[in-house]
Amino acid sequence: MKHNTLIFLLGFFMLQFACSPDFEPVDYGHDACAHCRMTIMDKRYAAELITPKGKAYKFDDAICMLQYMSANQVSPDSRLLIADHSDATHPFIDARKAIYLHNPSFKTPMNGNYAAFASEKAAVPLKDNLEQKLLHWEDLTRINP
Questions:
Q1: Quick one: which of 56, 47, 113, 119 has its CA closest to 83?
Q2: Which of 13, 45, 68, 106 has the most neighbouring CB atoms within 10 Å?
Q3: What does the DSSP assignment read for 9-63?
Q4: Can you say whether residue 57 is alpha, beta or left, with left for phi > 0 and alpha for psi between -120 and 50 degrees?
Q5: What is the DSSP string of 69-122?
């Protein structure tokens, strides 16, 4: 009985792993934003939405992703990823857990002017220089872009 349960659990987790929607790297200079159709050029602000079925939608900034989500039915189980502004390689991080700063100096492609950071620690030095407050994903969803 224990072996059957163990085999079932292993199979279940392997199936979950195999079906996990994966990140699709952005081809900068070639991929178009799913919302505004502009070519995604700036690695510092790119974003990606991955549906539970694994379809990836790429955006040139957080505001385009929010506008797309407002205009389309997006599953709450979708993965939302955004480029980490503070890391020189700009890896994608969980957009719902990221910390955001808003300032015109960011000059994002659609003038949303939000930059994402993996942690408060990474955002605080810039926050202090720009005299801005730290924002969370919920704060961005309350704006009407």
A1: 47
A2: 45
A3: HHHHHHHHHHHSPPP----TTTPBPTTT-PBP--TTT-EEEE-TT--EEEESSHH
A4: beta
A5: HHHS---TT-EEEEE-TTSTT--EEETTT-EEEE-GGG--TTS--EEEESSHHH
Contact 110, 60 (CB under 8 A): yes
The model's pTM is 0.82
Query: How confident is the model over 52-62, as pLDDT tens digits?
Result: 999 999 999 99
Strands 79-83 and 47-50: antiparallel
pLDDT at 13: 47
Say if CB 61 and CB 80 are below 8 A apart.
Answer: no
